[in-house]
Amino acid sequence: MLKSIAVITSGGDSPGMNAAARAVVRTALYEGVKVWGINDGYKGLLEENMFEMKSQSVSDIIQRGGTFLGTARCPEFETPEGRKKAYDILVKKGIQGLLIIGGDGSLRGAQKLSAEQGIPIVGLPGTIDNDVWGTDYTIGSDTAANTIVEAINKLRDTASAHSRIIVIEVMGRKSGWLAMVAGISGGAEYILVPEETYDLDAICDNLRTRYARGKRSSIIVVAEGVGSGTAIGKIIGDKTGIDTRISVLGHIQRGGSPSVEDRLKASRLGEKAALALISGLSNIVFGFQKGKIVSIDLHDAVTNIKSLDPDYLRLAKILS
Amino acid sequence: MLKSIAVITSGGDSPGMNAAARAVVRTALYEGVKVWGINDGYKGLLEENMFEMKSQSVSDIIQRGGTFLGTARCPEFETPEGRKKAYDILVKKGIQGLLIIGGDGSLRGAQKLSAEQGIPIVGLPGTIDNDVWGTDYTIGSDTAANTIVEAINKLRDTASAHSRIIVIEVMGRKSGWLAMVAGISGGAEYILVPEETYDLDAICDNLRTRYARGKRSSIIVVAEGVGSGTAIGKIIGDKTGIDTRISVLGHIQRGGSPSVEDRLKASRLGEKAALALISGLSNIVFGFQKGKIVSIDLHDAVTNIKSLDPDYLRLAKILS
Amino acid sequence: MLKSIAVITSGGDSPGMNAAARAVVRTALYEGVKVWGINDGYKGLLEENMFEMKSQSVSDIIQRGGTFLGTARCPEFETPEGRKKAYDILVKKGIQGLLIIGGDGSLRGAQKLSAEQGIPIVGLPGTIDNDVWGTDYTIGSDTAANTIVEAINKLRDTASAHSRIIVIEVMGRKSGWLAMVAGISGGAEYILVPEETYDLDAICDNLRTRYARGKRSSIIVVAEGVGSGTAIGKIIGDKTGIDTRISVLGHIQRGGSPSVEDRLKASRLGEKAALALISGLSNIVFGFQKGKIVSIDLHDAVTNIKSLDPDYLRLAKILS
Amino acid sequence: MLKSIAVITSGGDSPGMNAAARAVVRTALYEGVKVWGINDGYKGLLEENMFEMKSQSVSDIIQRGGTFLGTARCPEFETPEGRKKAYDILVKKGIQGLLIIGGDGSLRGAQKLSAEQGIPIVGLPGTIDNDVWGTDYTIGSDTAANTIVEAINKLRDTASAHSRIIVIEVMGRKSGWLAMVAGISGGAEYILVPEETYDLDAICDNLRTRYARGKRSSIIVVAEGVGSGTAIGKIIGDKTGIDTRISVLGHIQRGGSPSVEDRLKASRLGEKAALALISGLSNIVFGFQKGKIVSIDLHDAVTNIKSLDPDYLRLAKILS
Question: Which among B255, B279, B314 is the end of a domain?
Fold first, then answer.
């Protein structure tokens, strides 16, 4: 059993990372294990920017967005030399295992560190995009989806007032999960995702017909992976002749106080991951499959591509 | 295959009932089936207060709390004569199947109607308490949990400012699910649920010790099934000598615009339930088990008692 | 005393327009005066798209964003012929006075209609920009400022996590009011408004110094009237070498359920404006000066330029 | 000119107290004046629980509810001996002036301290009740009104679903301001305030008539100063025979992230109060009259009774 572990957040922040780190810290202390917090991701690790954590270190953070540990880009860690240096620092500090919370880029880095240096690594999927293979859920995705739906509600007000079309570009380079879930929940008329082809001419014909019949508002959600919402909105406006506005939500999708779903699942994952790491397990990522917590092979998680639940695609068609 | 169905909401309203009814209506129309909306629950049914629905009948409702169909108590329906009358009205209207969205009381009524009159019935669990057997999820429970957590955040502000203890009574007569999920997510110090005994003396001793050490706020969430939050808060205030305030959240827990989770799951359940009813299935309730949609025997759903996931009890201890 | 009036919303919608229209309708009915609602602004007026309103016509709308009456652009109304036609329609309908809710463009149109045709006109300032001369307040400005501050809170989370600078472009072509009020309330480090010059080099030097000392986040609010937030953000990123992200909030600023301030002030203005119009007054706009409702000459309101309270400029410096 | 001042929060906390304290601190530092923060109100003062503040001491607090300085009851300060002791501590610390943020009870205490010991005192009205004489505004009142309106929106959902009457008890022992402003903004059917008599029989008759005509929801807002919402709700339910539910909002009204209005006005008041105290002024409270910042004699502020704007009473009648 490990006696000292460290928790680190890396890559883009997501709401719920604090809840996960809090659960890791409190579980470790509950088990009598020393736990370090590393500031600013791998960059902080290479700068030995870390501190030993007490229970109070994670008080009053479960409701905060972002990550109190900080995160940063770190090119040096992408080199074998950088990872060797990171390993030496962990050894020097007496840290026997590393718990990493981040997206697939960050998990990939952790996997290399483990493969090269043999230090135990357990990962948690922290990204709003919900695009990590092997888990139905990633920390922050529910809060981000709710943030987008709140924006859709606001945009619907002004769209209806003006009989406009509004095109909303949301995050999701490789995955349309956010666009699909927020679009269905926001009652969007169309949802464009990278996983599915679409016929812009057909969409524009249909929009023209429905507005001619008196329809007063349409929300079209576009995942950034499909292309620029601005460009697509321009085409739709030109083809339909209907007043069309574009909204690129950007980084507000990453922030905000985490939802119950994110606080709870992040807390549950944090506990399980801490227990696993302490028990000596390594090279795994914890996530949810069919509502149950599962451990996924770290290598599989970072090499496979997650696909979108076809139920969503069908549901979007029926409900719109 | 059925040619005409009706959708009804009954019992206490919950956020997401509108999303579910919307999915039922649009799925039926998509399948070319006539669909009626019955107003004000079984009372409206006995008064023939119903209307045929079009796709626009459910526009602009997915974001609304409550139920646009309305709901009401109906003692007459609790009698065999009342249910016979209800059946005759459905037959007269050419309605071949009934889709009911409500809590277990409402589902029990539907089960009797089906058993006595043989009309196809499919149910959806609509209650914020998440206490329907056979499903991990009920429509409205996620929104209610988020509403409670928002209240906890506000109460934490004023608790910290005054070094107070705040006792929050939340809904849940038979089930501690809401209290547990909201309590863990809100970082509550103690969570009292009907499924578990508690030692108020031990709690008060512990609170005294922690406040003596400088702790500035404690949130104690009490499920109404445990007893009156007011009474429990009074005891805690007296035993600890610490300034203790009580908040009984009441009906605000039932309202509010549904969360993404509730909109999405309600929509998915609505589609599946409509398809099942149209295909002639009966005496089933649709819900989620381990993240997947499942159908539960209606009789089992209304006779068995749901228990609370022990993971929550353990997690609450470790994190508080 | 007039016996029949009409209410119309025009130009960009703003939260609280519904509250104002509701107050106009209920005040007129309370006074025994017939009141019409005109759909889709001047366009609807020219299409005779209007209906007589009852008290229930404005039920359940005070909490809605946008305008239930709708609004639209109308080039025809910008011509004397168009305005003559509008006048003839009003006369035909027996409408003796027009109450217009809109921004200064819309008020300008109303002023011409009144000048050319002599029909009584009373205006209310409905715009989130708070840029109408003669009034400290315009309907929707408080809700928009709160929407921006909520966005700043979300962006602050992710800015702190990454030690980033975030540049937020907000609405306000001629006026920096929204940027200034939201920036001060959001604790923004810099606020760029059209009313004031700024030294980007000095700002960048200062940012470099503060980040070198460990500052972790900066929010820079830019009113669109100053220039493109994207362009300014690019310059700041290049000059400082600090990771800088841009957020263009766009139309979400126009939507959302109105705040108490907007509901209350819009209701108070609606009552006063309706009473004034009914009593035969014309060519005035109602607004707030120093917390009191005042009437402003319509011609003055649309010809003078409002300036920004210098207190805000000073306060922003001291508090940042 | 004073060289060292202290800021203290006392009595019930209210959202925006942090924004005010932040403005006091930053203004003092901007003027080159030393500024102390006193923890836990007069109790902390008597315990010498205070610290010198830097600009960073008030970073990241403008968006927080409650008061980071803390507040507490302090019987000892209510005695001349206690106030003498407080004065001696201030002198010992070299503190030449005290800036107090609190309700009228707290201001009264400060006024006595000043009268007995001659130390300069400047006050700011911090209370959600908006019941301090001489100012149209108190810090926290706008946020509390918005919190109540959000609750009304949630309660309206479930009231409409069930055709219920809902009685909401809100804060305000002496003043009906909160009830009136939130009630008008929430579209309440009736608003009961201590400043005005009411006829419960007439209200019940009217409710019966309207429900008989098909009305589906009524919200009745009751200021606690009028009496128990629970008792009044019971009477209404009995007299009308309509299903009536009661909601006692309680302490959630005190918490929450402050609104733009509260952040901005608290910041403006904080600056002005700090400048006045530093310049040697004393025995004044800063507030708003007709939208302008004014200074009120401290003795007048704590001895006179504020009345409710009759416009609100009239408006409530016309709009409901």
Answer: B255
Give the domain CATH number at D55.
3.40.50.450
- pLDDT tens per residue, range C289-315: 988 999 999 999 999 999 999 999 999
CA distance B43 to B50: 11
Q: What is the pLDDT of residue B261?
A: 97
Chain D residues inside the 8 Å CB shell of C60 = 187
Q: How many CB atoms lie within 10 A of CB D116?
A: 13
Side-chain half-sphere exposure of D59, counting CA atoms within 13 A:
11
Tell me which chains share at least 3 CB pairs under 8 Å with chain C.
Answer: A, D
Closest CB from B62, B136, B260 relative to A181: B260
- Chain B residue with CA closest to D39: the answer is B161
Q: What is the pLDDT of residue A290?
A: 84
Q: Is D40 a catalytic residue?
A: no
Residue C106 labelled as part of a binding site:
yes
* Residues in a beta bridge with D97: D5
Task: Tell me the C-alpha distance between D315 and C268, whole Å.
Answer: 7
What ipTM was assigned to the predicted interfaces of this complex? 0.92
- Bridge partners (DSSP) of residue D139 are D126
DSSP strand pairing (C292-297 vs C284-289): antiparallel
Which residues of A are known to be catalytic?
A: 129
| Predicted pLDDT at C291 | 83
A22 is in an annotated binding site: yes
Nearest residue, CB atoms, C158 vs list A155, A163, A251: A251
pLDDT tens-place string over residues B43-68: 999 999 999 999 999 998 999 999 99
The minimum CA-CA distance between D283 and chain B, rounded to whole Å, is: 26
Could you write out the three-class secondary structure of A279-299?
CCCCCEEEEEECCEEEEEEHH
Give the pLDDT confidence score for residue A89 in this predicted structure.
98
Q: What is the pLDDT of residues B218-232, one digit of tens each?
A: 999 999 999 999 999
Which of the four pLDDT bands, split at 50, 70 and 90, describes residue D291?
A: confident
User: Domain with A204 in it: what CATH number?
Assistant: 3.40.50.460
| In a shared domain, residues B148 and B232 | yes
**Cβ(D77)–Cβ(D46) below 8 Å:** yes
pLDDT per residue over B5-25, tens digit each? Answer: 999 999 999 999 999 999 999
Closest CA to D266 of D124, D58, D56, D71: D124
- pLDDT at residue B168, as a whole number: 97
**Domain limits for position D20:** 4-140+258-303
A76 & A146 share domain: no
The CA distance from D74 to A113, in Å, is 57
State which residues of chain A have pLDDT below 50.
none
Query: Which residues of chain B register pLDDT less than 70?
Result: none
Say yes or no: A70 and A173 in one domain: no
Q: pLDDT value at position A320?
A: 84
DSSP per-residue codes, C208-232 = HHHHHTT---EEEEEEGGG--HHHH
- What's the whole-number average pLDDT of chain C? 95
Which chains have at least 3 CB atom pairs separated by less than 8 Å from chain D? B, C
How far is residue C71's CA from residue D63's CA, in Å, rounded to a whole number? 35
Q: Which two tokens stand for residue B292?
A: 């997947």
- What the block records as the tokens of A5 is 């572990």
Task: State the DSSP code for C258.
Answer: P
Shared-domain flag, residues A247 and A291? no
Of C105, C42, C87, nearest to C69 (Cα)? C42
CB contact under 8 A, B260 and A288: no
Residues of B in contact with D75 (CB under 8 A): none
Element housing D72 (H / E): none
Residues B134 and B273 in one domain: yes
Task: Identify the pLDDT of residue B290.
Answer: 84
- Active site residue ranges of B: 129
Cα separations in angstroms, A240 against A204, A247, C126, C251, D249: 6, 18, 29, 20, 49
The count of structural domains within chain C is 2
